[in-house]
Write a structure and sequence with these properties.
about 120 residues, 2 helices, about 30% helix, alpha/beta
Length: about 120
Amino acid sequence: MPHITVDYDAPLDGFFDRRRFALELHTLAAKTVDGITVESCKTRFRRLDEAVIANGEPGQALIHIDFAILPGRTTETKAALSQAVLDLVRSHTAAVPDTVVHASVDVSDLSGAYRKHVQ
Protein backbone atom coordinates (compact mmCIF):
# COMPACT_ATOMS: atom_id res chain seq x y z
CA MET A 1 0.00 0.00 0.00
CA PRO A 2 -0.40 2.35 -1.70
CA HIS A 3 -0.76 1.06 -5.23
CA ILE A 4 -0.25 3.72 -7.85
CA THR A 5 -0.92 3.33 -11.56
CA VAL A 6 0.10 6.01 -14.04
CA ASP A 7 -1.44 5.90 -17.52
CA TYR A 8 0.31 8.29 -19.88
CA ASP A 9 0.02 9.14 -23.54
CA ALA A 10 2.75 8.67 -26.17
CA PRO A 11 3.35 12.44 -26.71
CA LEU A 12 4.86 12.55 -23.20
CA ASP A 13 7.67 10.15 -24.19
CA GLY A 14 11.04 11.84 -23.96
CA PHE A 15 9.71 14.57 -21.65
CA PHE A 16 8.26 12.60 -18.74
CA ASP A 17 10.94 11.09 -16.49
CA ARG A 18 8.93 8.23 -15.00
CA ARG A 19 11.49 7.10 -12.43
CA ARG A 20 12.10 10.59 -11.08
CA PHE A 21 8.35 11.21 -10.97
CA ALA A 22 7.74 7.97 -9.02
CA LEU A 23 10.47 8.69 -6.48
CA GLU A 24 9.13 12.20 -5.88
CA LEU A 25 5.58 10.84 -5.75
CA HIS A 26 6.50 8.32 -3.06
CA THR A 27 8.07 11.05 -0.91
CA LEU A 28 5.06 13.30 -1.45
CA ALA A 29 2.62 10.54 -0.44
CA ALA A 30 4.56 9.81 2.75
CA LYS A 31 4.52 13.51 3.69
CA THR A 32 0.84 13.97 2.87
CA VAL A 33 -0.90 10.93 4.37
CA ASP A 34 -0.29 9.47 7.82
CA GLY A 35 0.54 5.77 7.63
CA ILE A 36 2.10 5.88 4.16
CA THR A 37 5.85 5.31 3.99
CA VAL A 38 8.13 5.66 1.00
CA GLU A 39 8.99 1.97 1.41
CA SER A 40 5.32 0.97 1.08
CA CYS A 41 4.73 2.79 -2.23
CA LYS A 42 4.53 0.91 -5.52
CA THR A 43 4.11 2.70 -8.85
CA ARG A 44 3.60 1.13 -12.23
CA PHE A 45 3.41 2.93 -15.55
CA ARG A 46 1.29 2.07 -18.57
CA ARG A 47 2.07 3.86 -21.81
CA LEU A 48 -0.99 4.34 -23.96
CA ASP A 49 -0.43 3.74 -27.64
CA GLU A 50 -3.26 6.10 -28.40
CA ALA A 51 -5.60 8.39 -26.53
CA VAL A 52 -8.27 10.44 -28.26
CA ILE A 53 -9.09 13.64 -26.43
CA ALA A 54 -12.18 15.71 -27.23
CA ASN A 55 -12.42 16.17 -31.01
CA GLY A 56 -9.09 14.43 -31.65
CA GLU A 57 -7.04 17.49 -32.51
CA PRO A 58 -3.26 16.97 -32.34
CA GLY A 59 -1.15 18.63 -29.69
CA GLN A 60 -2.89 17.05 -26.71
CA ALA A 61 -1.72 14.42 -24.25
CA LEU A 62 -3.25 12.49 -21.38
CA ILE A 63 -1.89 11.46 -18.01
CA HIS A 64 -4.04 9.89 -15.31
CA ILE A 65 -2.97 8.61 -11.90
CA ASP A 66 -4.99 6.06 -9.92
CA PHE A 67 -3.84 6.15 -6.31
CA ALA A 68 -5.28 3.34 -4.15
CA ILE A 69 -4.77 3.51 -0.38
CA LEU A 70 -6.01 1.61 2.64
CA PRO A 71 -9.49 2.68 3.76
CA GLY A 72 -10.09 5.00 6.67
CA ARG A 73 -8.74 8.30 5.33
CA THR A 74 -11.05 11.31 5.28
CA THR A 75 -12.33 12.91 2.11
CA GLU A 76 -10.22 15.95 3.00
CA THR A 77 -7.05 13.85 3.23
CA LYS A 78 -7.79 12.21 -0.12
CA ALA A 79 -8.49 15.60 -1.70
CA ALA A 80 -5.22 17.02 -0.34
CA LEU A 81 -3.32 14.03 -1.72
CA SER A 82 -5.07 14.31 -5.07
CA GLN A 83 -4.21 18.01 -5.38
CA ALA A 84 -0.59 17.47 -4.33
CA VAL A 85 -0.20 14.68 -6.90
CA LEU A 86 -1.80 16.84 -9.60
CA ASP A 87 0.63 19.67 -8.78
CA LEU A 88 3.53 17.21 -9.07
CA VAL A 89 2.23 15.95 -12.42
CA ARG A 90 1.99 19.51 -13.71
CA SER A 91 5.58 20.23 -12.71
CA HIS A 92 6.77 17.08 -14.53
CA THR A 93 4.83 17.76 -17.73
CA ALA A 94 5.23 21.53 -18.02
CA ALA A 95 8.13 21.26 -20.49
CA VAL A 96 6.24 19.27 -23.14
CA PRO A 97 6.39 21.58 -26.18
CA ASP A 98 3.28 22.52 -28.16
CA THR A 99 1.12 20.12 -26.15
CA VAL A 100 -1.87 20.63 -23.90
CA VAL A 101 -1.57 18.03 -21.15
CA HIS A 102 -4.85 16.75 -19.68
CA ALA A 103 -3.92 15.55 -16.19
CA SER A 104 -6.13 13.88 -13.61
CA VAL A 105 -5.82 12.00 -10.32
CA ASP A 106 -8.20 9.64 -8.55
CA VAL A 107 -7.56 8.62 -4.95
CA SER A 108 -9.59 5.60 -3.89
CA ASP A 109 -9.73 2.99 -1.15
CA LEU A 110 -8.36 -0.51 -1.60
CA SER A 111 -11.08 -3.08 -0.98
CA GLY A 112 -11.51 -4.84 2.34
CA ALA A 113 -10.26 -7.99 0.60
CA TYR A 114 -6.83 -6.47 -0.13
CA ARG A 115 -3.94 -8.57 1.13
CA LYS A 116 -0.19 -8.43 0.51
CA HIS A 117 2.88 -10.51 1.13
CA VAL A 118 6.52 -9.43 0.93
CA GLN A 119 9.07 -12.21 0.91
